[in-house]
Structures are given as C-alpha cells and as structure tokens.
Task: structure prediction
Amino acid sequence: MKPYYSYEDILALDFPPLIVYAVPVMVTLTLLEWFLRRREYKHELAEAAARGTSPEIADKYKYDVKDGLAAAGVGIGNLISTAMVKALTFGVILFFYNLTPLYVPTTWWSFIACFFVVDFCRYWAHRIAHEQRFWWATHVTHHSSEQYNFTVSFRLSWTQHIKVIFFVPAALLGFDPFVFFICMQIGVLYQFWIHTEMIDKMWAPIEFFFVTPSHHRVHHATEEKYLDKNYGSSFIIWDRMFGTFCPEEETPNYGILKPVNSYNPITLVFHEHVDMLRDMATYRHPKAWWRIMFHGPGLTLDKEKYYGFYKDNGSGGNSAGGAAAGAGKVEGALEEETRGNVLV
Result:
C-alpha cells in the first residue's frame, strides 16, 4: 500500500547528506589536481626554455587559481541557496508524489530504476537549459570558466533550483521521495569527477554507456562542431538516442563565446539574468518578451519589424539548439546572431 507523506514527515526523514560527506574527498582531489597541473606547467616551461621556444606554449597547462577561487565562491553560494529553497523543492516533489496513484516500492531495484528516470529528466532539463534563454540564465554560470578542472563542478547557479519542475515525472511515477532525493544526490556527485583533463578516454564499454570526462569536455567546448552536444549527466546513452552525441577528437577550448571576464561570484551567477532583463526592457510587446526568454540564447529581434512598423511579415529563424523555431509568415522577424550551447 502506498504511503502518503505530509511535509512534516518528509522533513523528519533522515536523509543522509551524501554531498556533505563527499566534500572532503572533492576538496582533496581538487588540491591534488592543482598540484599536478602546477607541476606539469613548470615542466613545460622548462622544456620550452631548453628548446628556446616561447613560454606561451605551456599556457594550456597553467592553472588559474583566481578562477578556482571564484568557482568555490559560486559553490558556497549554491549550498546556501539550496538550503534556503529546500522547503520549496521538497514541497514540489511531495505534492506530485501524493497526487499520483502510482507507487514504486522502496527496494534495492527501485533505487536503480529511479536513478535512470532522474538521469533521463536531467538530460532534458540540461538540454532545454541550452536551448531557451530563460533556462540558460540558470545554467550559464557553469560554462563561464575558460579552464576545465574539478573546480568547474562547483559552478552551480544559485537560481538553478527552479528546474525542479523537470523532475516532476519521477514523482508522478510514484518513486518514494526518500529514494528520489538520494538518487538526486548521487547524480550530482557523479558529475564532479567528469570535470577534469587529467583523465583521458576510458575503456570502450564505459565510454559507450556512461558520461566520461572526454564526453563532458566536448560539452564545455566552444568549437562549432562541439556545440549543443553531450547533455548527459551520468549516462551518455540519452545523447546517442536523441542525436546529440559527439566524440572528443581534439582538446577543446572552453568557456562561452561572450566571456564574462570577471572573478566576482555574483557577476558570474547573475550576468545573463541582467542581460536578458535589459534586452526585454528594450521592447514593450509581450511577444517580444516571450521570444527573448524562450527562444535560443543567441536570438535577436528586429525592433522596427516586431513593433509592426513594416509592410511585409517576416519569417521564423532557428533556435540556438538547431531546432526550427517556425517558418513562413509570422509576425516579427527572428534573426540568429549565432548558435550553440555557449551563446549569450
């Protein structure tokens, strides 16, 4: 028989804080990575001096400590914001769990099944966050670093918690809230180790099924062929199924095409929100606001045409993720400056 929970029941459940337990391990690995990269950089500098070549050749091994500290600041802010909205996120999942007549008993296999469902939901939450500017604003912080190391995993926006709505299907399937939140924590922890250049491609079966550092380096890349690829969090099979997979061929360049150029955590978190609101303030039409928020991050609007100061109707363009946003005679002309998951 399905157990129903009140909000007080959920708060009373003893959820093991897996992420808190993992913090010492993550900090240790981050410091170890910094030490190894620093040693590599010194070695490459010495090699360049011995060959009489420019020391700039060693720059790809240089570890930006300020960038790492900025990521730590963002990560601490994320922990604080998570605690502040805990009641909201728990409440949303609990509401839909109690609403559905479905129930998956809490057993060992329910954790496995729930993890797959949660990861599937995370794939689509992640993909939409790259294809619609409103959601991109909650995610761009994670892509703002031009380095690729363990500290990048700490760059989680303080506003990303609104994406809890993408995980409602897991609650509607009847997975116990305890099982759901454990799987959510495991999924977040999994993503830590894939943010490094220290691990090369792995054994082929692992590369085929799971997200690896090689896959995720592609996702953070700015090269055209790598844009809008490898959205998977734990399983790369979703990308293979939905046509968004791309293997790593050469070492990518990282970041976003419109760099933030700041180490300030507040700027890193809110710069896209500010830019989006500034663009919306340029227009007085609700349709323009809608298109700015829910079309691609690279979208621009032709103001004169959009306000109706024109004779001919325009036509639709493409979304940032490459999907058709519409064609034919539609009110307002849409133009794409460019495309891709790193466009702002």
